[in-house]
Amino acid sequence: MSGLFSVFWSWLRKQWLLALTATLYLWAFAVDPQRARLALAAGGHTLLSVSVLILAVMGLVGLVQAWTNRDAIAGLLGKESGVRALLLAALCGTLVIGPPYLIFPLLMSIRRQGARWAVIGAVLGAYAVKLPMIPLEIGFLGWRFSATRSLLTILFSVPIGLLVEWVMERGEKAEEKRL
Amino acid sequence: MISVGLFYLVLVAALYAFFYRRSSERTVQSLRTAGKALQTMAPLFVAIFGLIGLFEVFVPPGLIERWLGATSGFTSLLIGGALGAVALGPPAAAFPLAGSFLQAGAWPPAVATFIVCWVSVGVVTLPVEAHVFGWRFALTRNAVTFVAALFIGLIVGSLA
Question: Residue B140 class from Cβ within 10 Å (0-12 exposed, 13-18 middle, 19+ buried)?
Fold first, then answer.
């Protein structure tokens, strides 16, 4: 019995988000089954529509892992390459399209190949600018608004990356001291 | 979205074919890594899209508009950032929504903050980010970006 419980507990710790979502749905079905069904259909529809994209990106993650040269990535995006790496990261961030939960694994595969934390932070910072979508933004908000917002977001992405890296490295140092 | 996905899938498949001719062994290893990544991410995806469905159906868009339009000044800046942070949806949806906020009389800095937070700060995707990078990275990055978004919003508001 206690064995069963500990199995359940370790599952819950790993998949707590799934458990939370399931609990929310149970609640929703109890309160308002009709709208709960709508929610389930909406979620399922979104999942189906991006499932192909998910497959493609995971395939890309596998390719990065096995084919990119560790030294080349570290040289281009690692600690030694300095400001150039950060500017490159900010530029990449504006070009990257796709939902963040797909960008995360891709970025982590680059990080494992030797990219510095600031590069990851800067890509995600500049990610709020979408070069392919600028026309759409101008259409809804005007060019002055979207031009200043885009420019500032790119400018801010480099210090955001550096700050995140500083916190990460302090954490790693503290970890080393403890061990 | 499906056609975009198919386009990328064909592209990646072509890459695999290209690399397979250079070394079948390493490419099979790529495929295995991809499968493992997919396996660990799949339950998270199911959970996230379940949440998106709940959000879409149970949070009416009019509610968001009222919150941002009713207040002004620093409070609306914070509300704009917080709304963007918890909101879920494609970036393309942020622009028409932000446009409707502006027309409804929302403060421009709050709207700019809303857009930056919508894309870059993710409360709902935080578990996924932490799963991939660790909690320390996820929390730091989201907090720093949130503060930066407030400044970006303020500067945009005074310039535009």
Answer: buried
Measure in Å the smallest separation between the Cα of A106 and chain B Cα atoms. Answer: 10
Whether the pLDDT of residue B46 is over 90: the answer is: no
A/B interface, count of CB pairs below 8 Å: 236
The ipTM of this complex is: 0.74
Is residue A100 situated within a structural domain?
yes
- Whether residue B144 contacts residue A160, with contact meaning beta carbons closer than 8 Å, is answered with yes
Average pLDDT over residues A76-86: 80
* Selected residues 60-79 of chain A with any CB under 8 Å from a CB in chain B: 60-63, 65-67
Enclosing domain of residue A80: 70-178
Domain extents in chain B: 1-41, 59-159
Domain annotation covers residue A12: no
Does residue A110 lie in a domain region?
yes
Distance from CA of A1 to the nearest CA of B (A): 26
Angle between helices B24-58 and A33-67 (to 10 degrees): 160
- Pairwise CB contact (< 8 Å): B34 & A17: no
* Per-residue pLDDT reduced to its tens digit, A34-64: 999 999 998 898 788 778 878 887 888 888 7
User: Does residue A44 belong to any structural domain of this protein?
Assistant: no
Domain count, chain A: 1
